[in-house]
Amino acid sequence: MRKVLYLFLIMAVVMMLGGQALAQTYVVGTSADFPPFEYMEDGEFVGFDMDLMRAIAEEMDFEIEFRDISFDSLIPGLRTGTIDIVIAAMTITEERARAVDFSDPYYVANQSIIVREDSGFNLTVLFGDNRIGAQTGTTGDLWVTEELYDEGILTGRVVRYETFDLAIEDLVNENVEALVLDRPVAERFVEARPLVLVGEIITHEEYGIAVDRGNEELLAKINEGLEKVVDSGRMGELIDKYFE
Do 80 and 100 belong together in one domain? Predict the structure, then answer.
């Protein structure tokens, strides 16, 4: 009888551990140079997007592993299967939606222009022979290229960067005259560096969480988790934490 009981306990433990092992783990790609959405602090992924993704995973009972990748490599990473999910303050656009599937929108933002505090530049920095920086593959990059450079309004150069850390350093060191980037991120950089925000471009961009095209099961999990985070009040708490 004791032997049978012992075997039963062993089987119960194995089944319990096996159940834990079956918990799905997803690799989440981001570009961790975009405060307050995603950045590194003491070796940890922090920011609004990071906390939001953790909250969704908790609600839907799956595990996540963050991976830092250059922004323009995120969608290719989904397509090749090296990552499962992207959360990176990524604007939902028609072009991107042809390659990946997006969740319901979770944030709305505009583009903005920042310059050095002592430069004397204002919004007119976007006109003429100036060097305007943007992160490669972002909507800021597309806007400067299509609306300014291609139209001949900007006759200088569009300088593209893999990360905004490099872009900010070049702006501070006078290697570009201005940067175009998402308003909440611009505000964070202006708080920390000798920079000033001189204009806002009303683009009304909706951010979404991306999965590989056709991965309906994972997309449904994310949308359900996102809805639960909103309904529970946790989304409001995150917005207060990072943007108030």
Answer: yes
Rounded Cα gap, residues 15 and 13, in angstroms: 5
| pTM for the structure as a whole | 0.84
| Token pair recorded at residue 233 | 């009040």
DSSP letters spanning 44-103: EEESHHHHHHHHHHHHHT-EEEEEE--GGGHHHHHHHTS-SEE-SS-B--HHHHTTEEE-
Q: Are 85 and 27 in contact (CB under 8 A)?
A: yes
Q: Residue 100 and residue 210: Cα distance in Å, rounded?
A: 6
pLDDT higher than threshold 70 for residue 131: yes
| pLDDT tens string 192-233 | 999 999 999 999 999 999 999 999 999 999 999 999 999 999
Query: One-letter amino acid identity for 95?
Result: E
How many structural domains is the chain composed of? 2
Cα dihedral: 102, 108, 112, 117 (round 10): -120
As a whole number of angstroms, the distance between CA 139 and CA 110 comes to: 10
Residues 151-172 pLDDT 10s: 999 999 999 999 989 999 999 9
Q: What is the CATH number of the domain that holds 101?
A: 3.40.190.10
